[in-house]
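Hydrolase
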Amino acid sequence: MKVAMGQFAVSREWQENAAICIGLMNNALAGGADLLVLPEAVLAQDIADPDRVLKAAQPLDGPFVTQLLAASRGNTLTTIMSVHVPVEGNKAHNVLIVLRNGEIIARYVKLHLYDAFAMQESQRVNPGHEVPPLVEVAGMKVGLMTCYDVRFPELARRLALDGADVLVLPSAWVKGPLKEMHWELLTTARALENTCYMVAVGECGPRNIGNSLVIDPLGVAIAKAPESAALIFAELDPQRIAWARSVLPVLENRRFVRPELQPR
């Protein structure tokens, strides 16, 4: 599988962000990508106005996603990102969506809300309650996660037990003391402990770190982006997963097993 990672600074105007997303989709397709991963919350954001995510939130049949679906028609590129969708109580869901050939083929409402490091995502967002689905892309099974989810190893393990070869992580990882180190450490750990690829894409700009990366199943970083806007590519090899799981059979060697966490 050839994966593309498109990181950019999300603006307060959804029209600008839609145009950037469509441009990245076109460039990823031209580069031969099977999968494009974009950041978290790409519909609209404003550092000076934290409520912007609520003011700009749209249903999945709104103009933002409709434009992206139209741009996805007629090809097999799979595109993943998250957007804010309004719900009752003047709040939103942070919804990861998977687009392919004019359709939303999967969606996932973020489970773990970022109530940490003096931030409170739950003030504006309600959590989801369901384990993300797997999506097949170019013969590989892709598990869905969003940003803060990476700090909870049980979710990545559940997806691996369900059969994930690849974990994707659209993110808006906030800058701060040790935060870049946390980003690399956590994404590497989730890949290595589950012998999966990790494709983690971060928003860049004045608040967030960018630094999108791909970690292979033995913890090797095979692609990295800088702190600025970028589109980078990486090749994911199923044989590398098979090799990693043969020499490091951690999924087979587990001793603490709960029945409800067994593969479906």
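thats it. The two ends are 24 Å apart (CA to CA). The mean pLDDT is 96. bye
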